[in-house]
Amino acid sequence: MSKPNHLVIVNAWGNNRGDEAMLRALIYGVRQELPNTTVSVFSNAPMSLPTNTTLFAWSALPFQRLLQGGKGPSAAVRIAPSLIHELRRQQAGTHQVDAILRTCDMILSAPAGPYIGEMYPVTEPSCLLSIWLARHYQKPCAIAATSAGPFAKPLRNAIRRTALAHVQWWTLREPHSYTAVESLNLAQTDIELVRDLVFAYPITTEQHSTNPYEQALMADLYQYLKHPTIGVTLNTTPYIDPTGRQHPFDSQNYAHELAAFLQQVVQLSNAQLLFFSHHYGSDRELQIIRTVINHLGATVRVRVVPPDLNSDAQQLLAAHLTLQISHRYHPTIFALQHSVPVFCIIHQFKTEGLLRYFDYPLPMPTTLTPVAEWLAYFEPVWEQREALRDHIRHALPMVREQAQRTIERVVHTLQKPAR
């Protein structure tokens, strides 16, 4: 029997089935190699995690109160001695968290999108401080299978290098991010190009444990999926181009245009539709889905996956699709994971990198491509769906092997003797 290990994961996001799926794959994979591993996760919002995983809010970490106290996070990174004093003062009220951080074997920054870099400047300082916390507690630290960048601002890069100086390794899930992190010149950090963690641990029915309510929902949906079905996941966010510039998102216009496109898809394919919600707890996304369905009319056969079914359930359902239309990164992965052909609208550079994993043979539109032009891209995908299925199936073993590298590195770091 392996010795007990304690892995602490920071910078988890929650309310997002993709980030949840990556974290679940990571925990499943580590426990497969090290069954006695205890996992504590500090998450920004609720998420569904494997059993025997302890979930804490970000606010339980000492630095959150420091930030709320009005001191700028970038300054906090630069004035480390003052920050240490403040952390120690605050720890008087956080004995449980302090004990976890003092006794854990490793602090890992969670797999997710580009939370380090200029994509999300408001939340980046908090993420950097969570990573810096490992230096304060003198714990091995790594960053697991993220996207990253861009890194165009020299002052911010200096702060990043300070906060990341303790990071032993960082796995990046697509080439654009790997090149961006290379430009940071993190001398002490070993960076490696891998694949998204979801590919590392395919979900099977046997691994998916549900309560009777969820079992009934899944059985009903499996019955629906006996007919040819196209899965649909919608966009809900502004388009962020590779420079970090945001392009506005008009949800009402998007819903109207997408409904017109899906009517053409149904007419071409004679398939039914199954909508997947990606952000659980988000009324906004469900409202966009309802608006699209209302525009589609009563002649189109439609179902919506209940938003409380977690990422494991969504992957199991995706395995039964005829094809997936996705305007999001991880729902595309859920389909590819099971060799299901995808029509993917490219929304960020991470999605472009994903399709390159598979050397995807057909061009895809981007968010900025007029929706009226999407059908011209969709038609060859539908016509060649069986050839695409074979193409994806052939590429999957290499993708999975590269995705498992992050888990291998976590296991190796946990097994290293303490200094």
Structure characterization notes:
This protein has 419 residues and is of the alpha/beta class. The chain contains 16 helices and 14 strands. The strands form three sheets. A seven-stranded parallel beta sheet has the order 3-2-1-4-5-6-7, with helices on both faces. Strands 12-11-8-13-14 form a five-stranded parallel beta sheet, with helices on both faces. β4, α6 (124-136) and β5 form a beta-alpha-beta unit. α2 (62-68) crosses α4 (80-90) and α10 (251-269) runs parallel beside α15 (374-383).
Key structural traits:
five-stranded parallel beta sheet; 419 residues; alpha/beta; 15% strand; seven-stranded parallel beta sheet
Order of helices and strands: EHEEHHHHEHEHEHEHEEEHEHEHEHEHHH
Task: Quickly give the structural class.
Answer: alpha/beta
Could you tell me how far the N terminus lies from the C terminus, measured between alpha carbons in angstroms? 23 Å
| Shape by Cα distribution | globular
**Hey, roughly how much beta strand do the residues contain?**
5-15%
How much helicity do the residues have?
40-55%
* Gyration radius over CA: 22 Å
Compute the number of helices.
16
> Quick one: biggest sheet?
7 strands, parallel
Low-confidence stretches: 68-93
Total strand segments: 14
| Rounded mean pLDDT score | 89
Strand order of the largest sheet: 3-2-1-4-5-6-7
Spell out the blueprint of helices and strands.
Elements: E1 5-12, H1 17-33, E2 37-43, E3 53-57, H2 62-68, H3 73-78, H4 80-90, H5 95-103, E4 106-109, H6 124-136, E5 141-146, H7 154-163, E6 169-172, H8 175-182, E7 190-193, H9 212-224, E8 229-233, E9 239-240, E10 246-247, H10 251-269, E11 272-275, H11 283-296, E12 302-304, H12 311-318, E13 323-326, H13 329-336, E14 342-344, H14 349-357, H15 374-383, H16 385-415
Parallel strand pairs: 1-2, 1-4, 2-3, 4-5, 5-6, 6-7, 8-11, 8-13, 11-12, 13-14
Antiparallel strand pairs: 9-10
